[in-house]
Amino acid sequence: MTLGIIAAYFIAVLVIGGFSHRLFQRTSEDYFVASRSLGPALLLLNLFGANMTAFAVLGASGEAYSSGIGVFALMGSSSALVIPLVFYFVGTRVWELGKRRGYLSPVQFFRERYESDGLGLLLFVVLNALLIPYLLIGLAGGGIALAQLTGGAVPKWAGSLIIVAVVLGYVAYGGMRGAIWVNGFQALLLLLLGGVASWVIVHQLGGLESAMQRLGAVHPELLVRGTKIRPLQLLTYTLIPLSVGMFPHIFLQWLTARSARAFRLPVVIYPLCIAVVWVPSVVLGVLARLDFPRLPPAAANSVVVRLVEHHAPGVLVGLLAAALLSAIMNSFDHQVLAVSTMFTQDIVVHYGFRDRMSERARVWVGRGFVVGILMAAWLLSLVFDPSLFKLGVWCFTGFAALFPLVVAALYWRRSTRQGIAAATLCVCALWSWLVVSQWRSPDYTLGGTGVLPVALVLAVSIVALVVVSLLTRPPGAATLRLFFSADGE
Amino acid sequence: MTRRRWATLLYAALAALYLLHNDLWLWNDSRLWLGLPAGLVYHIGFCIAVSVVLGLTVVFVWPPGVPPGVPGAPPGAAPGAPLGTPPGAAGQTRPIPPPRGQGEHG
C-alpha cells in the first residue's frame, strides 16, 4: 500500500512537471526564472515549500520529543516573524532590481552593484560552498526517511536515486517552471497531509486535551520551556531565519515574481503556513512520549513515522511518505536549480561565452549542469556519514551571517566592494573555525550562555562591512544611481 | 492617516512583536489553554498577530524603493543581454560602466 501511494505520488509529480513544459518559452530567462511570471499564490507555495525542508519538519518533531513545546517558539514562530520581513524589505527590492537589470543569479547582482568581478567570484565560491552540503543533507535524509517509511523495502541508495531521478525528470526538462508547478502541488500536499495525520493520531490518543493531560502527568517538563531552552537562546535564534535573505534558491524565487504586488500574499500568509505545518509536528513530537517513552536521540527524528505506523498503518503511512517526499523535493529541486544557474550564468556565460551563446545553448548548458549536479549529489549521498547532518545547522549560521551583505547592497549607498569582501572573508574564517572546533555540537552556545554562534558571526560580519566600507571608496555615482533611484536613471 | 504615520505605527508594532516573542512570563506555565500548553497557544496567537500586522503593512505601507503597482517589464525582457541593458527596453537605462580592465557584463 505504502509503495503504491509513493509510486502514484511520483507519477503525479512527473505529470505536472511534463504539463508545465508545455508553457516553456525556450529562453534562458524562462528556464532559470520562469520568465518572471509567478502570481501571488504560486509564489507563496514555492517560497514556503523551499524553506520547509524534511529536515525542518522531522527535525521539529524530534526536537519536540526531546525538548518539549518550546521548539515552536524557537524555530517556528521566530521564522514566522523574520522570514516575511525579509521578503518584504529585501525580496521586493531584489525583484525590482532583477526585473529592471535582467538578473538571473545573486552573483550577477553583487557583481554589478559593486563593479567587481573578483567579488562576484568570491561570493560564487562561498554561496556554493554553503549550499552544496545543505543540498546533500536533504538528499541523504530523503533516502534514509524513504527506507524507514517502507520498512527497508526501498534501501537508502535506491531512495536517494529515486528522488534524484524524479527531480531530474521535471527540473532538467522544465527548469524553474517545472519546479514551480510541481512545488505548488507539493506544498499544498504538505499543508493538507500534516493536518490530516495529526488529527488521526490525536483522535487515536483520545483527543487533544486528554492526551496533553496524560503527558503533563508523566512528562510535565515537555509542556514548558523550563531548562531545556534558555531565554538567550530564544532571543538569538531569531537571527537564524535571516539566512533566507542569502539563500541563492530563495533569491532566484524572488526573481520569478510577476510583480512587486505578488509578494503581498506570501508576506501576509507565510506566518500562518508556518503555524499550520509546525504546530502538528511539535504536538506529535511531544505526544510521541506517551507511546515511545525512551527513544535514543538518534531515533527521535523518526517519531512521527513511528507514530503513524503505530496508530494508522496503511494508507496514512503512504500519505505521510508523500508529504515527506514533498518537503524533501520542494527544497532539493530549487537548490539544484540554483547551483546550476550560478554555474551557467556566473561561470560559463560570464567568463566563457558572453555574447557568443544562443538562448538555446544556455538552456542546454543549464540542463547539463542540473544532470551533473544531481549525479554528483547522488554519488556523494552514497558515502554520506549520518553524523554530517549536524552540519545543517551550521549552514544556516553561515548564510545568516552573510545577510548584512544583501542589506548593505540594497540600502546603504556608502557600502563598498572591499567592505563586502572583508565581511565575507571574516564570516568564512570565523565560521570555519567554529565548525571545525564545534561541528559535532549543533547545540553549542557561546560560553554555555545560550547565545548562539550566529550572533557572534553576524556581529563580526557587520563590523567588518561597516569599518572597511567607511575606509574605502564607494562605487561610482552612475552605479549608485542605477541602484538607488526609482527608475534607475 | 498618512502613509508616514502608518509606517511609524506598523514598524513600531513589528518591533513590539519582536520583543513579545520572548515570552518569559509563560516560560514555566504548564496550564492547558484550549487543550494545548499555554506557551504553544501563545506562539500560535503570535503567528496570527504577525500575519495581521503584516497584512496592514502591505496595505498601508509599501516597501521602500518599490512603488506600488510597478508594471511588469514587457515580455522578452532581454534575457542574456548585457546587464547594462534593461529588460525589454534597450537604451532606456544607462548601461553601467564595466569594471576597470574588463569588458561588458553579461
SSE diagram, text form:
The complex is a heterodimer of chains A (489) and B (106).
Chain A: H1 2-21, H2 28-33, H3 40-51, H4 54-67, H5 70-101, H6 106-113, H7 117-149, H8 156-204, H9 208-218, H10 231-237, H11 248-255, H12 264-291, H13 303-311, H14 315-353, H15 359-382, H16 391-401, H17 403-411, H18 417-438, H19 453-471, H20 477-484
Helix pairs in contact in A: 1-8, 1-14, 3-8, 3-11, 3-12, 3-14, 4-5, 4-12, 4-14, 5-10, 5-12, 6-7, 7-8, 7-14, 7-15, 7-16, 7-18, 8-12, 8-14, 8-15, 9-12, 11-14, 14-15, 16-18, 16-19, 17-19, 18-19
Chain B: H1 3-20, E1 32-33, E2 36-37, H2 38-60
Antiparallel strand pairs in B: 1-2
Helix pairs in contact in B: 1-2
Shape of chain A: globular
Order of helices and strands of chain B: HEEH
How many beta-strand segments of chain B?
A: 2
The number of E-state strands of chain A comes to 0
Share of residues in strands of chain B: under 5%
CA-CA gap between termini of chain B: 45 Å
User: What percentage of the residues of chain A does DSSP assign to strands (E)?
Assistant: under 5%
